[in-house]
Amino acid sequence: MENKNSKQEQFKDIIKLIESKNYNEAKDRLNKLLDEKQNDFYIYKLLGIISQYSGNLEESIYNFNLSLNLMPKNAGVLYNLGAINRSLNNLEKAKEYFFKTLEVNPNFIDSYINIAQIYEREKKIFDAESHYKKAFSIKKDHTSLNRAYARFLINIGELKKGLSLMYKNYGNIRFGKSNVEIN
Question: Phi and psi for 166 in degrees, rounded to 5?
Fold first, then answer.
């Protein structure tokens, strides 16, 4: 029992290191834990997060895939792999991971948002709007969903609706000669 608690405490300490952006120390501690016990899902997941935050996306993909080998139906890891692939402009692979995320957790709103944004980028407006609507059916007052949908509406020419939704989510919007102020 004490060993379990000490491991939990170690993970708490490592998460604090990650939150304070002390990635090297966190990575060293995780690697030390790996030396003690191979094939730990959570260790690989945290190593993937550290690599992602550090900008080492290939290493991040590698670590997230190791964690998926141990727990194939983890929505958070699947989502992170989708986000990384999207940032690498591997849009088909990104969509694949976002859809897998939704298979595991159909209420994962950020996956719907990302799929919609990819469809929008691909000029598949109907598909994009469909995924925004699916996300709204889960939660209407989700801030990043409302903001993404407002941008979508503006991009497809629905200025009045989009600006109204932006105002509702961002507050007062003023358009200056060279910038936009949001209060």
Answer: -65, -45
Cβ-Cβ contacts under 8 Å for 90 (sequence gap 6 or more): none
Distinct helix (H) and strand (E) counts, the chain? 10, 2
Residues linked to residue 181 through DSSP beta bridges, in sequence order: 174
pTM reported for the whole predicted model: 0.84
Q: Rg of the chain over CA atoms, in angstroms?
A: 20
Amino acid identity, position 43: I
Element (H, E) at 37: none
Cα separation, 136 vs 112, in Å, equals 9
Whether 93 and 61 have beta carbons less than 8 Å apart is answered as no
In this predicted structure, what is the pLDDT of residue 6? Answer: 78
